[in-house]
Structures are given as structure tokens and as C-alpha cells.
Amino acid sequence: MDQVSDQSGVERVLERPSAGPAGTGVPAGPRSRPRVVRLLRHEWFLAGAGSVLLAVLMTWPLMRDPAHTFASDFWDPSLQAWQLSWMGWALLHSPGQFWDTNAHFGESWSFAYSDTLLGYLPFGLIGSGSEAAVLRYNLLFLLAFAGASFGAYVLARQLGANRAGSLVAGLIFAYAPWRYAHMSHLNILSIGGIALSLAMLARGHGYSLRHGYRPAQARPAWALGGWLVAAWQITLGFGLGLPFGYVLGALTAAAVLFWLVKRPPFGKRLFRADLAGVLIFLATVGLMAIPYLRMQQAYPGSARTLAEINSFSGDVRQFVTAPGFEWLWGRDNQELRDALIPQGGGEVWNLPGFFAIGLAGLGLVVSAWSRRHRVLMLLAAFAFAWVGMGMRAPWNYGYQMLHHWLPGWDAIRTPGRLILWVTLLLGLLAAGLITALAEHLTGRVARPVLAVLLLIPAGLVVLEGVQITPFRDVPKAPVALGSLAQPVLVLPTDKLADLLVMLWSTDGFPTVVNGSSGYIPPRLEQLRATVASFPDAASVRYLRDRGIRTVVVPRRSYSDPVPPETFTKPVDGLGITREERGDAVVFGLG
Predict the structure, then answer these.
(1) Residue 589 CB partners (closer than 8 Å, separation 6+)
(2) Where does the chain cross the membrane (predicted)?
(3) Using an 8 Å Cβ cutoff, are 135 and 410 in contact?
(4) In the 8-state DSSP scheme, what is residue 553?
(5) How far, in whole angstroms, is CA 439 from its chain's centroid?
């Protein structure tokens, strides 16, 4: 079943029907119906509210205690909760210190050591302290899932899918099994803006897969809005934002080529909206790149090497490997996961969903999309999968070329995250299948039967998206770090333990030596090696030379334990003090 010419698709939703002359914008239906009622019954409102409600259910028990627990673990979530808090605190109290944070004492550009989530800055202005930091993070964690399903739903609708097909596309994009390998990576979960911006750009240009480019349907304001959403998505981080930027560049180049060949009408208002949008997008990319480029200048060793990328690359088996937190397939995939651990661990457990693959496969045969569009989607999915294997892809010379020639590509550590594009394309192929089946069966079967049939694919995708992620209680600070002489060093200091210290420091943001993120400065590695024998003369002398005034050793360790003698070793002759405070031992270095 090839493309079906039907006006019952997205146009009926995005074009407000009129009771008066065409183009007057008079709403259909009873004029007496209150505006609020019309809003509450609008498809976009229902889709948005439904996305949030579904996210609450699919991430349960997150919202049972969102101020005191983290999904999966409390390591990376602590980092990102600290980032969200730091942005708000720095903007209000010390804007000039924005990129030189309270953590990583003595280092520069420390906020650019990893993706910054800068687009979430307004949330950081609300509340203070570690409890607010945890709650803020979890609310955004929830909205990341809701935004992904809503964005893909809107994109599928704009391209011409019906509601049932768009629902399946949204569910596949938001709840694909691979996403549960990233339950502690808010920057990777936040992909809704990608789909939403594509939908708005398509809407702005009057484009759908069902009807192609229709100049009369163009809406310049939507096009500008699409570029603004794309710019916002970039501010959440370059890990996903950089490939997104190149996808936008490729789509723009294809659109320009189409215009040069076909010369369709293109209004001045749309041209000005696109020009303004592109300039804003490029300016955002440039401004975001500045601190990262300066960080790379300050730390030349921060660029990702091909050897490092190889350690985070996975072969073709990654696409059939479910993470352990996925309920349906995860428990039976342990052998595959173990085999892939040397190839990047959880970063390469990238199953997009067996039901999603099956629906997309059927969508290659039966679809509302044209044969040409289906072939292009299939080729694009294979291309993203191939690049997503990184250095373990067959003929990986292509990836090496991207790493060498594309600006910024050498900052991408994990190629497998391109699975999001494979997932989006699978969702769109599935949406084409469901739409075509609905149109074929309408009038042939009873409406209740048709509704049940169309909801079965959505039910299968939801089943595949059920998670069994453990939720961890967030450890509380053993002592108020802000009450101590600063800078403060908390032991043990390692890649994991320091993440908790950063979260604890959100209570007032005292200066701490600890720090952890995507890049670890050499001086911090040196400090960790030197203080392993603390307290002794060599470590105390080193810390004093670094200007560190207080060392805190919690009684309870959450990573590598502190040697027991740290608490009892004599300090006579070292010129330091030792004091029991809270649930920790505090050493004053004078």
C-alpha cells in the first residue's frame, strides 16, 4: 500500500478550521464555548498532558519521593543536579565566576568539563540547597521523557501521520529500551527539542511527507520558532547537539538544492524568518563553543582521541542488547551485556526495541509514506547506525574522517548515542504503517474494533518500555561544608566520591577542591595520588602549598573506603588539628 492522498492528516489539526471565509481564523464549533474549554480539548494540550502523565507512570516510583532519591545511582545525577544549581547561584551571586565554579579549586573553565545543561538555567533560579537540587533535577528528568514523546508525536503529525501512528512514534522515541542505559544522564535523555524543532521547521515551511512542500501552508513564525527551539537544544550540550547541528545543516543544504532545481515560490517573510533563525542558531553555537574552545586551550589533553573513542564504541551487537533496567528483554540479555562491557559498557546497550524494529520493518512494505521516503528513511537509519558504531564499525575509515574533518566532532566520546536518530526514524516508519492501516480499515471494521487494533502497537511499545530501575536514597552531607575554612577537600577523592561532594556543596557553594566530570585535570589526578597517605608530612605540605585549609573525612564512604588509620594516625608535629564534627572527622591545616 503506497502513499494515500488524504486530507484527514495533520493539516486538520495544525490548520485551525474556520466557520467563516477561508483564512479568517474563525474557530470552528460553537462560538459560545469558552476559550479555556477549547484549549483543554485541543489536541496539543491533550498530547502534552498525556505525555506528562505517562512519564509519571513510566518512571514510577520517581515521583513518590522526588526530593530525596535518584534513578539508577547517585553519581552522575549528583553532577547534573549540582550543574543546575550552580547556574542559578552563579547568575545571581557571581556572574563573573560562571565558568570557574566552586568545585575544582585552582582550575579554570571547570563548568565546561562536560555538557552544561545551560538551557535549563531558569530552573536553577528556583530554590536553594541540596534538597532543592535533587527535586529540581528529578522534575527535569520527568519532563525529559514527556518532552521526547510529545516532540516525536508532533513531528509525526506534521509529517502526515494520524493520531494512533503519531502516538506510536512518540512512545518509541521516548521509551526505547536503550534510554534506560542512560537513566543517570539527563543530557542524553533530553531529546524532545530535537523532534519538536524539526516539526516546527516543517510546519513553518508548509512541508509534510504526505503532500510535500506547499508554499500556501508556510508559516514564517513557526519556522523561526523551530530555529529557536533548535538553538535551545544545543544549549543542553554538544554531546547530542553537535550531531543535531550537522543534521540541520544537511537538511538545510538539501532544501536549498531543491529550491535551486525546482524554483518553487518562497515568500520574503519566510526567507527573513529563516535568515534570522539560522543566524540565531549559529550565534548560539558560537557562543556555546567559546568556553569549550578556551578549556581545550587550557587543557590540550582534553580532546577525545580515536583510542578513547574506540573504548566507547560497540559493534553491531549493541543494537540487539537491552540494558538491565529494561523489564521485558533486559533480564535475558546479561550474556550480551557482559560481552559488550569491554566495548563501552552501558554506553553500547542500544536496543531501540524489537517491537519498534518489527513495526518499522512492516512500515517499509505498508505505509502512508511514499516508497521514496521510506527508502530514504531506511538508508538514513543504516547510516546513523553505522556511524554509531564508531571505531568498531565495518570500514571505520569514514568515522575517522568525521573525527578529523568535522569541527567539534573530536569532542564526541560516545558514538552510540546516535541511536536516537535510528530510533526517531524507526518511529516515523512505524507511524506510516499505523496511518495506512487505519485509512485502509476505516469503514471496513467497526470503529471500536478499529480503535483496539490501532492501540495494540502502542501497547506493545509501552510494554517494551517498562523499566525496573532502582531508585537510590541520596546521601546527606556528613558536615556543613560551608561552615568550614575554605578551600575544603573531602576524602576520599575519586571520580565517583567527588560527585557527591559537588552535590553537598550546593548548600551555599563553598569552595571545594573535589571535582568530577567528563574531564579530570592533571593536577587533580596528582592531588589524589598525593593525599592517599593523609595525614602525613608530605601530604600536609602539598595541601598547604595548594592553599587548602580544611580536610574532611566522612565516617561513611560511598566509594573507595578511607584507610582506617586516617582517623587514628598521630598528627603531632604536623601542625594540624583533628576534630569530630557531625558524621565526619575535620582536619584544620591552619
Answers:
(1) 540, 543, 544, 548, 549, 550, 551, 575, 576
(2) 44-63, 137-156, 161-178, 184-201, 221-238, 244-261, 273-293, 349-369, 376-398, 418-438, 445-463
(3) no
(4) E
(5) 35
The strand pair at 488-490 and 550-554 is best described as parallel
Specify which residues 69 forms β-bridges with.
473
Measured from the Cβ of residue 469, the count of other Cβ atoms closer than 10 Å reads: 21
Residue among 380, 486, 484, 395 nearest 428 (CA): 380
CB 343 within 8 A of CB 315: yes
Query: What are the phi and psi torsion angles at 524 (to 5°)?
Result: -70, -40
Cell 501497547 sits at which residue?
A: 459
Helix H or strand E segment including 530:
helix 522-530
Report residue 63 as a C-alpha cell.
515521583
Q: What is the dihedral of CA 238, 244, 250, 255, to 10 degrees?
A: -130
Tens digit of pLDDT per residue, the chain (590 long)? 444 334 333 333 333 333 333 333 334 444 556 888 888 889 999 999 999 999 999 999 999 999 999 999 999 999 999 999 999 999 999 999 999 999 999 999 999 999 999 999 999 999 999 999 999 999 999 999 999 999 999 999 999 999 999 999 999 999 999 999 999 999 999 999 999 999 999 999 999 999 999 999 999 999 999 999 999 999 999 999 999 999 999 999 999 998 898 888 888 999 999 999 999 999 999 999 999 999 989 998 888 889 989 999 999 999 999 999 999 999 888 888 988 888 877 889 999 999 999 999 999 999 999 999 999 999 999 999 999 999 999 998 889 999 989 998 988 889 999 999 999 999 999 999 999 999 999 989 999 999 999 999 999 999 999 999 999 999 999 999 999 999 999 999 999 999 999 999 999 999 999 999 988 999 999 999 999 999 999 999 999 999 999 999 999 988 888 888 888 888 988 999 999 998 999 999 98
CA distance 104 to 491: 14
**Quick count: other Cβ atoms within 10 Å of Cβ 390?**
30
Q: pTM of the prediction?
A: 0.91
Q: Taking the CA atoms of 424, 429, 434 and 435 in sequence, report the sign of the dihedral they define.
A: positive
Copy the grid coordinates of residue 210.
504526505
| Alpha-carbon span 143 to 252, nearest angstrom | 29
Position 326: which residue type?
E
Total count of residues recorded for the chain: 590
Residues 6 or more apart in contact with residue 556 via CB below 8 angstroms: 475, 478, 583
